[in-house]
Amino acid sequence: MFGTLGNNTFPASRLGRIARFAAVGIAATSSHALTTIVLVSFLAGNPTLAMVIGTVVGVATSYLGNALWTFGATGRHVDHLPRFLLVYGVIMSFNALTMFLLEQIVGLNYLIPLAIALTISPALTFILNERYVFRGSLR
């Protein structure tokens, strides 16, 4: 046992899962960026197409890393992958809505909603992955 949050015990194993989630996030972001840069810089690719391909590589890295390492999910990818993609879409929509409302409607500098979204979305993504995407299949 590591400590408590409210009335719930917060086990050290969950901290390990959070650390693995962060590492997978760094790997997914890096693979996205590297793929995009390589396609544009070294293969003279179209930046928009490169970004799309980079996004696919990043999402695949995130899914596989989280399924296999972070959450150690058992079960079938056909069950987990659609839920993962749904959560990805929800988080992307949350980020876009946060930016739109706070930058366009409220008039804040874009860095403020960016910081808010980048603070909330990883935590929300972790919770949704743990409780929805890979629920009932965690090792």
In total, the number of strands is: 2
Shape: globular
Strand content: under 5%
Mean pLDDT over all positions: 90
Q: Whole-number radius of gyration? A: 17 Å
Q: What does this protein look like?
A:
The protein has 139 residues and is mainly α. The chain is built from four helices and two strands; from the N terminus they run ββαααα. Helix 1 (12-41) runs antiparallel to helix 2 and helix 3 packs antiparallel against helix 4. The longest helix has 30 residues, at 12-41. The two termini are 18 Å apart.
In a few lines, what is going on in this structure?
The protein is mainly alpha-helical and 139 residues long.
Characteristic key phrases:
mainly alpha; disordered N terminus; 139 residues; globular; two-stranded antiparallel ribbon
Secondary structure elements and pairings:
Layout: E1 3-5, E2 8-10, H1 12-41, H2 47-70, H3 77-105, H4 111-133
Antiparallel strand pairs: 1-2
Helix pairs in contact: 1-2, 3-4
